[in-house]
């Protein structure tokens, strides 16, 4: 019995072995090919991340040097009005700016996709162009436009005998920043959505038209549900982008120092802590907490999207 | 100095290569590499990073007076006493020398330029408003009101929100000495207990509240415009201001004049210092002798010092250069032929000794921005902001392990 089974199994096993070798080779190739990425990922992301995490459990004083403090930096951050205020401000930014921006992007994408527009390419490029302008340049430009003395809006108001609008006053400046970011990113999000729209099979439209659906109905019932993936992607990117806001407020600070504090956004605060206060340990803790906030919010967004999908 | 040596020199002084070339002509064996890693904040961030990394730091480095104590605190600068820099002491006014010997121990830099404060003003606008040059702060406040009364769209002057260095110079002038540091772990922070600081703060609080002076950020577009188009008729600034203004407000050439700051006590004229740099040698330098020579040469060699003063327009710290006719007798057409250098030389002699900066002046400046600066921007309560600034600094100092006295 024993011998029999052995002889019977032998060719099978050999076959298996061959498969295994082939598979193993494939695996090896897969690992070899992804190695450059893995190495770069480890060196540029994983190692610094772990190092930052390590740093966040210490405290360095100008007098007295370095000491281990456990979770102290995190506890401090959770009661730090500068950090909490920044996160709150970015949450407000998110709730107002992201829907407006994505709404506009979707509208432009749908209009372009409908094919009912003349100069389509020109308009597509025109909406996209601001994204190609570095945010630093864009902010300097808008900073000039917002100017209270010689900005064009102020000039226009003056010509009409109205008081010049103060875009950089404490209560307005968040909206002025929203405007800059929206201006910069509508085109980018539009292109992502537009690309998704182009991949919807045309038969669906034909069928719907045969059923007598209007363009509006087409957009609402076919196009938007079909690009759900792209919408989710752009939403999550926008969530991350909002919480990481840095360039725009940091540059506008030069012309509106009273309205934009150094702790205006969590990233600005971390930068300030690290390079001005010389407290990079606490800055590392802030950066980690911000990362956790972003992950949590992104997760909630994804969860709600999935739940909706299941419900529909 | 005959051995082949390489030195790295970090500075943002434009065209400093001119002085370095003079140095190399004299010491051909020493090769100096001049690097501009950025101005102000960027410069110090990179310097700190290099010091922490333990490599890549330069041998000689530009170091502003108000930053110097924060680098002696971390023991990063070389004491130049053994390199004979002490013999230069008599060439400088006491307050300049005090700036490179924080806490009175050691010599940590060779002075490069200074910024004793004066007042630049538009003579034409003053005349049109029927004003004479205010000699005291009381007269200045009256002039602010009178000027505004005659000009709906123009103000006598502007004072920026992010102005710690500028404000400290006014405290300095008034005799305020809010800070000190013993070089070890003891700091004094006494903004609210210092009568002069309180007096100056209350004075400016009233000016801002009146709405008759500007509160615009300086060195920004709108501010440059303001100096050009007559929105502001005066600028209280350091000795480096006249040349800067000349490049910024070209269209107003010939209309500006220079005067001393208004005084608290006109019987004993005083001023404070706003800005200015030294060249320091880092402790990590492998060639400290050559590095110390470089720092000394570019700032004190007669030709180099005159070039810095007359071609790069750094206001000279040394009394030798200040009194050199090639510098002192120059007249400036932008200022209607006035001898601007001579004016500021006289002002420099009125700056009093004993003012110290905190060993964490970066933080002090950013803390100023969020307390005093915010109050200036909002025309809020500057007196309360002074207390808030004091409290914030004390809290930071204690958190950093200093023993704080007030």
Explain this structure.
Chain A has 312 residues and is an all-alpha fold. Chain A folds into 2 domains: 2-55; 74-311, MetI-like fold. Chain A is built from 13 helices and 2 strands; from the N terminus they run H-E-E-H-H-H-H-H-H-H-H-H-H-H-H. Chain A has helices at residues 2-55, 72-78, 81-114, 120-132, 135-146, 152-159, 173-198, 202-210, 215-226, 228-243, 247-252, 266-275, 280-311, and strands at 58-61, 65-68. Chain A has a two-stranded antiparallel ribbon. With 406 residues, chain B is an alpha/beta fold. Chain B folds into 2 domains: 5-114 and 276-330, 3-Layer(aba) Sandwich (D-Maltodextrin-Binding Protein, domain 2); 116-271 and 353-405, Periplasmic binding protein-like II (D-Maltodextrin-Binding Protein, domain 2, 3-Layer(aba) Sandwich). Chain B contains 17 helices and 12 strands. Chain B has helices spanning 17-26, 41-53, 68-73, 94-100, 123-128, 137-150, 164-173, 195-210, 221-228, 241-248, 288-300, 302-310, 319-323, 325-328, 340-348, 361-378, 382-399; strands spanning 5-10, 30-35, 60-64, 110-116, 118-122, 155-157, 179-181, 186-189, 232-237, 256-260, 273-281, 403-405. In chain B, the strands form 3 sheets. A 5-stranded mixed beta sheet of chain B has the order 2-1-3-11-4, with helices on both faces. Chain B has a 4-stranded mixed beta sheet with strand order 6-9-5-10. The longest helix of chain B is centred in the last third of the chain and has 18 residues, at 361-378. The model of chain B has no long low-confidence stretch (mean pLDDT 94). Chain A binds chain B through residues 61-64, 143-144, 147-150, 170, 254-259, 261-263, 272, 275-278, and chain B through 41, 45, 48, 73-74, 161-162, 185, 215, 217, 220-222, 225-226, 231, 359-360, 362-363, 366, 369-370, 373-374, 376-378, 396, 399-402. Chain A: InterPro entries: ABC_transporter_permease (IPR051393), MetI-like (IPR000515), MetI-like_sf (IPR035906). Chain A: This is ABC transporter permease. Chain A: It is a multi-pass membrane protein. Chain A: Keywords: Cell membrane, Membrane, Transmembrane, Transmembrane helix, Transport.
């Amino acid at each position: 019995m024993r011998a029999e089974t052995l002889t019977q199994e032998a060719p099978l096993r050999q076959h298996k072995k061959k498969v295994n070798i082939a598979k193993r080779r494939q695996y090896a190739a897969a690992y070899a090919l992804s190695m450059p990425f893995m190495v770069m990922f480890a060196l540029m992301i994983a190692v610094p991340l772990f190092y930052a995490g390590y740093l966040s459990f210490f405290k360095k004083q100008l007098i007295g040097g370095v000491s281990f403090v456990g979770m102290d930096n995190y506890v401090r951050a959770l009661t730090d009005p500068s950090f909490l205020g920044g996160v709150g401000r970015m949450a407000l930014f998110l709730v107002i700016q992201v829907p407006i921006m994505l709404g506009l992007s979707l509208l432009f994408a749908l209009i372009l996709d409908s094919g009912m527009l003349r100069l389509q390419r020109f308009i597509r490029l025109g909406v996209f162009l601001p994204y190609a302008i570095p945010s630093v340049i864009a902010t300097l430009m808008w900073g000039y436009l917002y100017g209270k003395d010689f900005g064009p809006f102020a000039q226009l108001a003056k010509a009409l005998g109205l008081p010049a609008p103060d875009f950089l006053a404490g209560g307005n400046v968040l909206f002025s920043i929203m405007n800059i970011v929206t201006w910069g990113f509508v085109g980018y999000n539009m292109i992502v959505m537009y690309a998704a729209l182009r991949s919807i099979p045309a038969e669906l439209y034909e069928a719907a038209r045969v059923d007598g659906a209007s363009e509006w109905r087409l957009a609402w019932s076919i196009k938007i549900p079909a690009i759900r993936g792209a919408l989710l992607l752009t939403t999550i990117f926008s969530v991350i982008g909002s919480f990481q806001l840095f360039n725009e407020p940091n540059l506008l600070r030069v012309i509106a120092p009273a309205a934009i504090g150094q702790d205006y956004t969590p990233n600005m605060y971390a930068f300030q802590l690290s390079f001005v206060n010389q407290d990079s340990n606490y800055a590392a803790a802030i950066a980690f907490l911000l990362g956790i906030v972003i992950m949590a919010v992104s997760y909630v967004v994804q969860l709600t999207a999935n739940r909706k999908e299941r419900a529909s | 100095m005959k051995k082949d040596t390489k030195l790295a020199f970090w500075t943002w002084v434009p065209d400093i290569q001119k002085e370095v070339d003079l140095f190399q002509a004299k010491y051909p064996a020493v090769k100096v590499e001049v690097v501009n890693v950025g101005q102000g904040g960027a410069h110090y961030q990179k310097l700190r990073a290099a010091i922490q990394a333990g490599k890549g730091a330069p041998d000689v480095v530009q170091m502003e007076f108000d930053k110097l104590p924060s680098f002696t605190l971390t023991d990063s600068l070389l004491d130049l006493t053994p390199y004979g820099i002490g013999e230069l002491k008599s060439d400088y006014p006491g307050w300049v020398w005090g700036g490179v010997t924080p806490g009175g121990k050691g010599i940590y830099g060779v002075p490069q330029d200074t910024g004793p404060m004066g007042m630049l003003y538009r003579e034409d606008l003053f005349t049109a408003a029927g004003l004479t040059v205010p000699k005291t702060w009381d007269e200045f406040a009256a002039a602010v009101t009178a000027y505004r009364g005659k000009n709906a769209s123009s103000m006598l002057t502007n004072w920026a929100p992010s102005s710690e260095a500028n404000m400290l110079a006014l405290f300095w002038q008034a005799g305020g000495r809010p800070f000190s540091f013993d070089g070890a772990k003891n700091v004094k922070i006494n903004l609210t207990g210092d009568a002069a600081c309180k007096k100056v703060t209350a004075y400016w609080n009233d000016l801002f509240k009146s709405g008759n002076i500007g509160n615009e950020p300086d060195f920004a577009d709108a501010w440059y415009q303001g100096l050009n188009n007559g929105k502001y008729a005066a600028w209280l600034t350091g000795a480096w201001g006249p040349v800067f203004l000349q490049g910024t407000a070209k269209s107003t050439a010939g209309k500006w004049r220079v005067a001393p700051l208004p005084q608290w006590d006109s019987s004993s004229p005083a001023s404070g210092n706003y800005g200015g740099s030294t060249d320091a040698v880092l402790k990590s330098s492998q060639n400290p002798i050559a590095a110390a020579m470089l720092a000394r040469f570019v700032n004190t060699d007669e030709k180099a010092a005159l070039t810095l003063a007359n071609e790069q327009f750094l206001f000279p710290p040394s009394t030798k250069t200040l009194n050199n006719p090639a510098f002192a007798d120059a007249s400036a057409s932008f200022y209607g032929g006035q001898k601007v250098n001579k004016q500021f030389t006289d002002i420099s002699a009125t700056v009093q000794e004993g003012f110290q900066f905190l060993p964490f002046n970066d933080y002090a400046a950013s803390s100023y921005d969020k307390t005093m600066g915010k109050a200036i921007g909002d025309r809020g309560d500057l007196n309360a902001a002074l207390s808030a600034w004091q409290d914030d600094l004390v809290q930071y100092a204690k958190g950093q392990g200093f023993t704080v006295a007030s």
